[in-house]
Design a protein that fits this description.
The protein has 2 helices and 18 strands. By secondary structure, the protein is α+β, with helices and mostly antiparallel strands. It has 3 domains: about 10-75, no CATH class; about 75-175; about 180-340, Jelly Rolls (Sandwich). Strands 4, 5, 7, 12, 13, 14, 15, 17 and 18 form a 9-stranded mixed sheet that branches. A 7-stranded antiparallel sheet has the order 3-6-16-8-9-10-11, with no helix packed on it. A hairpin with a 4-residue loop joins strand 12 (about 275-280) and strand 13 (about 285-290). It is rod-shaped, with a radius of gyration of 72 Å.
Length: about 350
């Protein structure tokens, strides 16, 4: 058997130094590409001859394998340094991307936490706003109730004041005598009673300074004196007798005589038991008139002092004097001019 002939197409390896000092093997082929029909036919012939050859003969290699490493072509004509820089930059970029992913994950978690906190804060704010509105409504309600209660209290106080004034007037009407000696005079409402046999003892009303005031009494007492006296000069708890009365006293004695400063100045009708004796003082006209059972007496006093007090002088022990009227009147009971007398 003939040895296999060499293929007319031969591969030649040309070694050229690279710019970095490394060898790059370049294979040049002087034949047509391996995918052509002639190349395929040659390979078939070689394989046929190899199958009929003697087993002791060496079979030539089908392909030539270079004994040195094959260097891949440099991408885009980059140097090794540039490739290393690309690799290092890629690693750094990869690390940076991983860090960025971790940061994004952390930011997403923080964002979720912040969102939850914001929801919590919004819920708290809404709750506080509702509480604020409730407090405002409650304050308005309490303010309204307070104003209503204040108005009611003011009305109640006005009513109580009116009642107090009414009670005061009633007390004054029922207890006209405010100045007296408890050792000599007993006062029970509108009733005055002498309780000992000592010297004459007077009792007095509160002072009056304007308007028209009137006091009326009835008694079974035989001896009694009624009149008015200067409010600032009256002898407290002492007798106001016609014989020793001060100048500012104007008295009507039971016998019908008018006395001032211990002197008799005129004569009116004699007083009798069971009659109503009245004294009326007009503080605007400064006059004092006397009445018996509503009938005006002809003699009266003029130019009286202001303010003044009404006075009763009791003579008989244990004989009550009933004050039937005491207070201010709207209209005078004077119907005749009469005769006026100045103080003695």
């Amino acid at each position: 058997m003939e040895p296999p002939s060499q293929s007319p197409q031969k591969s030649q390896s040309v070694t050229t130094p690279s710019a970095e000092g490394t060898d790059v093997t370049q294979r040049t082929q002087q034949s047509t590409p391996p995918t052509t029909p002639s190349r395929t036919h040659d390979l078939s012939q070689q394989m046929l001859r190899f199958s009929h050859s003697s087993p002791k003969q060496a079979t030539p290699p089908l392909f030539s394998v270079p004994s040195h490493p094959i260097s891949l072509p440099r991408p885009q004509n980059k140097t090794t340094g540039e490739l290393m820089l690309d690799i290092v930059g890629y690693d750094r970029l990869k690390t940076t991307v991983e860090e960025a992913k971790g940061m994004m994950t952390q930011l997403e978690r923080e964002k979720a936490e912040w969102t939850e906190e914001r929801k919590t804060h919004l819920s708290t704010i809404q709750s506080l706003q509702r509480e604020k509105e409730q407090i405002q409504h409650e304050n308005e309600r309490l303010r309204g109730e307070s104003e209503t209660r204040l108005i009611e209290m003011q009305r109640t106080m006005e009513g109580m004041k009116n009642q107090l004034d009414t009670c005061t007037r009633c007390i004054e009407a029922n207890n006209p005598i405010v100045e007296f000696s408890p050792e000599h005079i007993r006062v029970n409402g509108s009733t005055v009673t002498r309780i000992n046999s000592e010297s004459h003892v007077g009792c007095f009303t509160k002072p009056v300074s304007r308007g028209i005031h009137r006091m009326s009494i009835t008694t079974e007492m035989r001896y009694v004196t009624i009149g008015v006296i200067d409010a600032d000069e009256y002898p407290k708890f002492f007798a106001v007798d016609v014989d020793s009365s001060p100048k500012a006293a104007m008295m009507y004695k039971d016998g019908g005589s008018l006395w001032s400063a211990g002197k008799k100045v005129a004569q009116n009708t004699k007083l009798e038991k069971g009659q109503e004796w009245s004294v009326e003082a007009d503080l605007e006209k400064r006059t004092v008139h006397f009445f018996i059972d509503g009938k005006q007496q002809p003699h009266h006093f003029i130019n009286i002092p202001v303010p003044l007090r009404f006075v009763i002088n009791a003579y008989n022990k244990d004989v009550p004097i009933e004050i039937t009227f005491w207070g201010e009147v709207a209209k005078s009971h004077v119907t005749i001019e009469g005769t006026g007398h100045n103080l003695g």
